[in-house]
Every structure is written in C-alpha cells, then in structure tokens.
Write a structure and sequence with these properties.
disordered N terminus, 331 residues, 8 strands, alpha/beta, two-stranded antiparallel sheet
Length: 331
C-alpha cells in the first residue's frame, strides 16, 4: 500500500518529504541534518486549487487539525490541496492563480525567482493532478530564514470510499502532520518516522472513539509477518537513502507496517506505557541526545540492539499475544 520513493530535487530546490504515489506512500530523508521546525501558535495556512470540491479540503483539514491538537502546533506550515475529478480539465484561471500563489510564497525571502518556480509547480502539482494519481507528502523548505513545512495533498478523492467509517483523506492529514511534529525534534530512523505516523493514524482515531485501535494495526501485522521470511528487520530500515535495493524494495513492510508495531512496542515497553509520555518525554530526548541514546535512556537499555532483539522476540509471539499489548497502552 505504501511505498518509499526518493523525491527528485528539480532546480536544486531542497525538499524532503513523505510522498504518496497511487496508493503508495514514502518518506525521503535525503537531508538528514535539517534545521528543525519550531513550535508556533499560528495554525497552518491552507491553499486550495479553485474548483476542487471543498469537501476534500475539509477532510484533509480535519486530519491535520486532529493531529495538531494532539502533537502540538509546529511549522510554519503551509498546506497545498488540489485535484480534479472525472477527468475534468483544470480551469485556466484557477491554475494560474494557484501557480502564482504558490510561487510567491515559495520564493519569498529567497534568491529564487518566480520564473524558475513555474516549471517546478507544473511538474510537481499540475502534471500530477492531470495524471489523476493521488499523492500526499511533506516537503521541508529550508531556504527561508526559518525552515517551513509544506504539506501537499493531490487528488485525494482517489483514496475515498463511501464505506470507510473514517475517510482516508482524514488519515492522510493525520499522517503527514505527524511528520511535521517529528521533524521539530531531530533525526530519527525511517522506521520510527513512518511507523510513528502510521501508529498515529490509529491512535488518534481510537482516542476519539471512532474505531478500535487494532482496526488497522491488526491488518498491517500480516504484512509485517510476511517480511520476516526474508530475514530483514527494522534495523535494516534505519535510513532508506543508504539501504541497498534488496532492502529498499520492502520499505512498505519494514518502515510502515513493522515500524508501526515497533513504535507500539516501544511505547508498551516504556514506563507507564503512555503515548503522551512518548510524545512529551521521548521526542525532546531525541533533540538532546540523538535518537539512539534517547531510545536507550527512555527504555533503560544499554544499546539500540537490545531493543531490536526484544522486538524480534515480540514478533515471534502468537498473534493474539501481540495484539494484546494494544489494550495495555495508556493515554
């Protein structure tokens, strides 16, 4: 379902993102030494392509605001939403207004020009919309005095199904804004970034009583189990950019599926088994100590390998025993 895809850097525009193509999603962490996003009071600024049904913005906004209410407000964050339905052409005036709005924001305070921005917007926004494929990702914009988060949601109606109790575009909003929160605290391994965002999709919806915590986590456990036959573990998915091809091709199962269970296990293994403590204590430790030492201090272990070994033993337990830890997590 989700696939980790490297994001090209057109015109040397520095980006790092969690990108979703068709029904695949991924994160490019090519710029690991990033200046972090900061805690701010201002909410995200939403930008929408005129003519795209407002309900898609409403779903994305619901997920982002749900995520922001739980993780905190970080950024500055700009949200760009666009799409077309039923193959209808994009209105020319709407397209030009969207391009101008994006480029004025993207070039402000930088040495970039509006002229070089236009082909970038055409490739990364308009061409994608006209291809009718959905995408959702976070881009990290570093050329400004303070790095800004750019959340992009294109053709998200393609992920919508009437029978879903929680619309998928809502989950995409939760997922991508979780990355904004994570990137305010420093470098973390790919499995923790993507696994944490997938876990958040389930946890926040569960906390609102909209569906059981195990609804999605039980399903992705099957894919997490399937990857064990290869002998690969999350320790092989610390950095997608340096992972060999035989590992990278399994990023869905390792980073997203197994990663989500690794985060659930990490929280269950921690004092109080508290998700809010993971938010409020663990992440600041990442800033202070780096993720490896933070993991050791948070779990009172000697080395990250201890966590990996414990997690592998956990994955060997019967399915019902693994699912049982979800009932023991606390707010």
């Amino acid at each position: 379902m989700r696939r980790l895809t490297a994001v090209l850097l057109p015109m040397l525009w520095l980006l790092t993102g969690c990108m979703n193509t068709t029904d695949d999603e991924g994160v490019d962490r090519s710029s690991s030494k990033t200046r972090p996003f900061v805690e701010i009071k201002a909410p995200p600024t939403y930008h929408v392509l005129s003519g795209y049904d407002p309900k898609w913005e409403a779903y994305v906004r619901e997920g982002i605001e749900m995520s922001r209410a739980y993780w905190g407000s970080y950024g500055p964050t700009h949200v760009w939403i666009g799409g077309r339905e039923d193959g209808r052409p994009i209105d020319g005036a709407a397209r030009e207004a969207f391009i101008e709005e994006y480029c004025r924001w993207r070039t402000a305070g930088t040495e970039r020009t509006l002229e070089e921005c236009r082909p970038y917007v055409m490739e990364r926004f308009i061409d994608v919309i006209e291809s009718d494929r959905p995408e959702a990702y976070l881009s990290w914009v570093d050329e400004k005095s303070q790095p800004e988060a750019e959340l992009v949601f294109l053709n998200v109606h393609e992920w919508f199904y009437e029978e879903d109790a929680v619309p998928d575009p809502v989950l995409r909003g939760i997922h991508e804004y979780t990355h904004v929160f994570q990137m305010a605290f420093g470098e973390m391994p790919t499995w923790m970034m993507e696994g944490g965002a997938v876990f958040a999709e389930s946890w926040l919806i569960h906390m609102l009583g909209r569906r059981p915590l195990d609804f999605n986590l039980s399903r992705i456990m099957e894919r997490a189990d399937s990857i064990r036959e290869t002998g690969l573990t999350i320790s092989d998915m610390e950095d997608i950019d340096t992972a060999p091809d035989d590992v990278a091709k399994h990023h869905l199962e390792l980073a997203y599926d197994t990663g989500a269970w690794a985060v659930a296990f990490l929280i269950h293994r921690s004092p109080g088994r508290s998700v809010s403590r993971y938010r409020d204590v663990f992440h600041p430790l990442v800033t202070e100590l780096g993720w490896e030492q933070a993991l050791c201090d948070y779990l009172s272990i000697e080395d990250k390998r201890d966590f990996y070994d414990e997690f592998e033993r956990f994955l060997s337990l019967p399915r019902e025993d693994r699912l049982a830890i979800l009932d023991e997590l606390t707010p």
